[in-house]
Design goal:
The complex is a heterodimer of chains A (113) and B (114).
Chain A: E1 3-6, E2 11-14, E3 19-21, E4 23-26, E5 32-38, E6 44-50, E7 56-59, E8 62-65, E9 75-77, E10 86-94, E11 100-103, E12 107-112
Parallel strand pairs in A: 2-12
Antiparallel strand pairs in A: 1-4, 3-9, 5-6, 5-10, 7-8, 8-9, 10-11, 10-12
Chain B: E1 4-7, E2 10-13, E3 19-25, E4 32-38, E5 44-51, E6 57-58, E7 67-73, E8 76-81, E9 90-97, E10 103-105, E11 109-113
Parallel strand pairs in B: 2-11
Antiparallel strand pairs in B: 1-3, 3-8, 4-5, 4-9, 5-6, 7-8, 9-10, 9-11
Chain lengths: 113, 114
């Protein structure tokens, strides 16, 4: 079945450090891929998405490229800020399963000044 | 983007009582809504898929008689936690998707059962 595997946290970085959060997926069809962010006490917000192979999603300095050959969608940011501290979820939506969303376990990021 | 409103954001109830959580799509019609439960420092656990005008589809291990889901219209789905117990205390989140394009999430409801 469909699934998303995400690197476990927590991740602690200093401000302006480079961030990578790994995400790989398994899907029966051709899924869309997403990164969601959850700030403390809040719901999930879409950070970026990619709907087909080789697409790059980007937002707020974050980027992720849909790699079909490696079934990956790693999240990167060149210089993190304290305000980026949150939990990040990788997810996929597969039309073969009625567009149900599958989430990774989430990676907690803490950025220290 | 589309907006999903979830209400209430926080609720405290006594053991044995029932609590209703509403999930509304404000500016689009959602034929399907999803209900998730999030445990501390854990990922989202899909509880059920709610389809307008039909019975919800529950995930394995979720008690359908305890977590009643109603999807009365294309813009409203409700989750009722019946006979709540302290172990039901959690963060509940709803979402609505428009095809495969994106899932829009409510802000979540923090339920505390005392």
């Amino acid at each position: 079945g469909d699934s998303v595997t995400q690197m476990e946290g927590p991740v602690t970085l200093s401000e302006e450090a480079f961030l990578t959060i790994n995400c790989t997926y398994t899907a029966t069809g051709y899924p869309s891929l997403f990164w969601y962010v959850q700030y403390p006490g809040e719901g999930l917000q879409l950070l970026l998405k990619a709907t087909k192979a080789d697409d790059k999603g980007s937002n707020k300095g974050f980027e992720a490229t849909y790699r079909k050959e490696t079934t990956s969608f790693h999240l990167e940011k060149g210089s993190v800020q304290v305000s980026d501290s949150a939990v990040y979820f990788c997810a996929l939506s597969d039309p073969n399963t009625g567009n149900q969303f599958y989430f990774g376990t989430g990676t907690s990021l803490t950025v220290i000044p | 983007g589309a907006v999903v409103s979830q209400h209430p954001s926080r609720v405290i109830c006594k053991s044995g009582t029932s609590v209703k959580i509403e999930c509304r799509s404000l500016d689009f019609q959602a034929t399907t809504m999803f209900w998730y439960r999030q445990f501390p420092k854990k990922s989202l656990m899909l509880m059920a898929t709610s389809n307008e005008g039909s019975k919800a589809t529950y995930e394995q291990g979720v008690e359908k008689d305890k977590f009643l889901i109603n999807h009365a219209s294309l813009t409203l789905s409700t989750l009722t936690v019946t006979s709540a117990h302290p172990e039901d205390s959690s963060f509940y989140i709803c979402s609505a998707s428009v095809g495969r394009a994106e899932a829009f999430f409510g802000q979540g409801t923090r339920l505390t059962v005392v």
